[in-house]
Design a protein that fits this description.
Number of strands of chain B: 17
Bound molecules: cobalamin, iron/sulfur cluster
Largest interface: A-B, 57 and 59 residues
Order of helices and strands of chain A: EEEHHEHEHEHEHEHEHHEH
Shape of chain A: globular
Oligomer: heterodimer
CATH class of the largest domain in chain B: Alpha Beta
CATH topology of chain A: TIM Barrel
Largest sheet of chain B: 8 strands, parallel
Helix content of chain B: 40-55%
Distance between the termini of chain A: 30 Å
Strand order of the largest sheet of chain B: 10-9-8-7-6-3-12-11
Radius of gyration of chain B: 28 Å
Chain lengths: 322, 447
């Protein structure tokens, strides 16, 4: 007698919020298109039990000045455009970015501090160079972030940039800037479900609609804490689908930054022969980090290497086909 | 499915004789349900009750052993959907596939590469686990020769791949008692395969060509035929569909207690993709999501190392970070004049620093503090790696006795601690090292 297996489906009661980045001319910005993430009613790519109305997307990282500290593999892959954020952003769009992640470093390669005016000028030049929505991040030091991101927010009113990182230390300033100039925020917390929830609560208490909040649960790269990120993202996603309203934000992972920071993706000499070729190793490091985090709930992965971008796009389209 | 205390109680003699050491049968049953007692402690339990209870406590996903000797590995016995619920126990075996139609020299080269490949991370040796040999020629004799040749080159376990029972039989005859996995029983050959696997006491993979119904059907038949150790191939070679299938299988075993499908899964990363990058992606997915054996078609150290690292990460017990013992470690035969550094006892942190110190050839000392197995910044943020902790370690391990100087180098990330540490360690000079361990050799050279 033939056996019939009943496919086990979870009955999720919650869903992820839809968040739209960027604004077109009609919507008060200048973007050629907007992009929406979120909306899931099931765990990543399990189309048999729920919906993933929007495909996860790929961001490419662009910096405001030459990234002398980057892995030689990346410097070689990008070449001259690294000297010019506008050209860099344009190239990133050409090779398939869905969004640009502009990082304002806080100082140039010679150590000269970035002024708020310079930060404002950079966002304007990048806005002109590309029609894609933009995530903007500061140097990652709360006070400096405040100064520079406020200038960026002012210089691009109505563009619906995603401003980050918005942390417990500086969320007030960043959220206020987002409210004043019609932007989004990237709420960032250190690998902890309760801290992530807490920050979302604080942000929504300031009356920024949660439809304008992306969540960054902190990315640990392969070999450097990925298991913690992987698990906290699974926990956040399960909580969200079970109906916990303060965990229902789409998640963004800064995969490129973390993957290419590590020794394995930077060092060619003096490492064990078993590590193999530096270029292939570095790219594999980024591909594996991105893939694992997409499988645990990332809605946006921000990458650095052009080849990874292709591979991750193809992976997402395979996983979305059904 | 675990039984409740009350369900267990119904199976006990209910005489409250106390021979088990508990005042009542019910009390004993409660302890059993909580897995804090063993059924053997009740001398009066009936045979039927024993059977019912042991069936209920059998793992929802069967443990399968592959190979023999030092390179034997085990898969299965998983108990959770998500690693944060407890942990994943038996990491998937990674196999490289070769074919009996390939040039013997080329096969030997691949086998040697995989056999010898071993790479260390946080003090743990990571290796590939098996060779899959496919009978692409369709000829039993050719296949047996190929299997014999590979066996002479390695002690790694095999996955023997053919749909032809005669070919597998010929291969098993030359393979002896090395306990390979036979791949695979299908709707067309399952009876003969069952006979072969049972006769030779080896585990048998079963491949469905038509989804989980066919898989369950075949598994039932094989079970009825007496084959116990099964490995499941639900059949899809599509990345997304595979994810759905392996998730469904894990859920059926764990949540629906469907013993029939409670077996480890075999996945073919090379068949899911037609490029090397695609194979990396598929292997990543199968490591994270539920495979017991992953067969790849390409081998490159630059790919193997990241994938083995991922496997190590995903299968680390979330409850206990891998850590090293606090104490003073020496590198390159240090003397009393050599520099002293300090860091935390998180394995990853220790090995990142130790690797650099070792490699630099510079004699040095490293003081490992007990920071509850956390990285430098995590421990600092959690208050487990502060001036007090470091000062305490300096005293506990008598760091000063080993040295002619009183200088200690902090990790660059916790430069903020230097002021407080000066107060905690009067007479010591506190130096701040670079942020990243890679930059340590250069820093030490200019010291
Ligand atoms: C994985 C992780 C965790 C894991 C813990 C892993 C562990 N066992 O330590 C978990 C999820 C448990 C965790 C928890 C927390 N975390 Co955490 N975590 C991380 C993460 C992602 C990676 C850390 C890591 O493993 N690094 C790798 C190791 C090897 O790095 P390392 O120890 O620093 O060593 C390097 C250098 O310091 C140097 N080095 C080391 N020793 C020495 C010695 C000398 C002499 C020199 C010169 C150099 C040197 O060499 C190494 C390689 O270059 C980072 C963010 C990130 N992406 O880096 C956040 C991070 C460290 N965590 C952070 C925080 C705040 C926390 C929490 C306090 C959050 C909370 N409130 O709950 C908790 C604290 C724990 C607790 N309360 O129990 C913050 C710290 C912020 C800060 N600057 O203060 C970070 C930076 C995240 C962030 N951006 O906010 N975390
Ligand atoms: S030994 Fe057995 S029968 Fe006696 S009290 Fe314990 S459980 Fe009951």
């Amino acid at each position: 007698m033939p056996v019939t297996v009943e496919i086990p489906k979870e009955r999720w009661t919650g869903s992820i919020r839809e968040v739209t980045l960027g604004a077109t001319a009609e919507q008060g910005g200048t973007r050629a298109k907007t992009v929406t993430v979120g909306g899931e009613t099931t765990l990543p790519f399990l189309h048999f039990e729920g919906e993933m109305p929007h495909t996860p997307i790929v961001g490419i990282e662009v910096q405001d000045s030459y990234p002398a500290d980057w892995s030689p593999v990346l410097l070689a892959a990008w070449g001259d455009v690294l000297n010019d954020p506008a050209a860099w952003a344009k190239k990133a769009e050409e090779i398939g970015a869905d969004v640009i992640m502009l990082k304002v470093r806080g100082a140039d390669a010679d150590g000269n501090a970035t002024s708020p005016e310079q930060a404002a000028a950079v966002i304007q030049s990048v806005l002109q160079a590309t029609g894609l929505p933009i995530i903007v991040r500061g140097p990652g030091q709360a006070e400096l972030d405040n100064k520079l991101l406020v200038a960026v927010a002012e210089a691009a009113p109505g563009e619906r940039l995603a401003l980050g990182l918005c942390e417990d230390k500086n969320y007030r300033t960043i959220v206020a800037a987002a409210l004043a100039h019609d932007h989004l925020v990237v709420a960032s917390s250190p690998i902890d479900v309760n801290l992530a929830k807490q920050l979302n609560i604080l942000i929504s208490d300031m009356r920024l609609p949660l439809e304008r909040v992306l969540m960054d649960p902190t990315t640990g790269a392969l070999g450097y804490g990925i298991e913690y990120s992987y698990s906290v993202m699974e926990r956040l996603r399960v909580a969200a689908l079970t109906g916990d309203g303060m965990t229902q934000q789409p998640m963004v992972c800064f995969v490129g930054e973390e993957s290419w920071r590590q020794k394995e993706s930077r060092t060619a000499e003096g490492v064990p022969a078993e590590w193999g070729d530096i270029e292939k190793r570095g790219i594999t490091w980024e591909i594996a980090t991105a893939t694992a985090l997409l499988e645990s709930g990332a809605d946006i992965v921000v990458l650095r290497h052009p080849e990874t971008v292709d591979v991750v796009h193809e992976t997402i389209s395979k996983l979305m086909a059904h | 499915m675990a039984l409740s205390g009350l369900q267990i109680y119904k199976l006990l003699p209910k005489t409250n004789c106390k021979d088990c050491g508990y005042p009542t049968c019910l009390a004993f049953a409660m302890k059993l349900a909580a897995k804090q007692a063993s059924l053997d402690d009740c001398p009066h339990v009936s045979a039927e009750a024993k059977e019912a209870l042991s069936a209920a406590s059998a793992p929802p996903i069967r443990l399968v052993k592959v190979g023999t000797g030092a390179r034997e590995f085990q898969v299965g016995n998983e108990t959770v959907m998500f690693r944060h619920e407890k942990t994943f126990f038996h990491h998937p075996g990674l196999a490289l596939r070769v074919k009996d139609t390939e040039d013997a020299g080329a096969v030997a080269e691949k086998v040697k590469m995989v056999n010898d490949y071993s790479v260390e991370r946080v003090g743990i040796e990571m290796t590939f686990n098996a060779i899959a040999i496919e009978n692409a020629s369709g000829d039993p004799g050719t296949y047996a020769d190929a299997v014999k040749a590979v066996r002479s080159q390695t002690a790694l376990p095999f996955v023997l791949m053919s749909d032809d029972v005669d070919a597998l039989k010929a291969a098993l005859d030359v393979e002896g008692d090395h306990k390979p996995v036979l791949y695979a029983a299908t709707v067309d050959n399952w009876e003969a395969m069952a006979g072969l696997a049972k006769g030779k006491q080896v585990s048998l993979a079963v491949r469905s060509q038509d989804g989980l119904d066919e898989l369950a059907d075949l598994a039932t038949k094989l079970g009825d035929a007496g084959v116990e150790a099964l490995v499941l191939d639900p059949g899809s070679r599509d990345l997304g569909e595979s994810l759905a299938q392996v998730t469904q299988l894990r859920r059926l075993a764990l949540k629906k207690n469907l013993r029939l499908l409670g077996h480890p899964i075999i996945a073919f990363a090379g068949e899911v993709a037609d490029t090397e990058e695609g194979e990396i992606v598929a292997t990543t997915q199968f490591i994270a999501k539920y495979a017991g054996i992953i067969v790849m078609d390409r081998f490159d150290p630059a790919v193997a190392y990241p994938l083995l690292t991922l496997r190590l990460n995903i299968y680390t017990d979330p409850q206990k970070p891998i850590s090293v013992d606090p104490g003073i470690y020496d590198f390159n035969n240090p003397t009393a004049d050599s520099p002293l550094m300090t860091t935390t006892n998180f394995s990853l942190t220790y090995f990142s620093v130790a690797g650099e110190l070792d490699g630099s050839g510079i004699p040095s000392w490293l003081l490992i503090c007990d920071a509850e197995g956390m990285s430098v910044l995590t421990a600092w943020a959690a208050g487990k790696f502060d001036a007090e902790t470091i000062a305490k370690a300096v005293k506990t391990f008598n760091a000063g006795d080993k040295l002619s100087h009183k200088k200690i180098i902090l990790p660059g990330h916790v430069a903020v601690l230097s002021g407080e540490l000066e107060e905690e360690l009067p007479g010591w000079e506190i130096l701040v090292g670079p942020r990243e361990a890679v930059d340590l050799p250069a820093y030490l050279k200019q010291l």
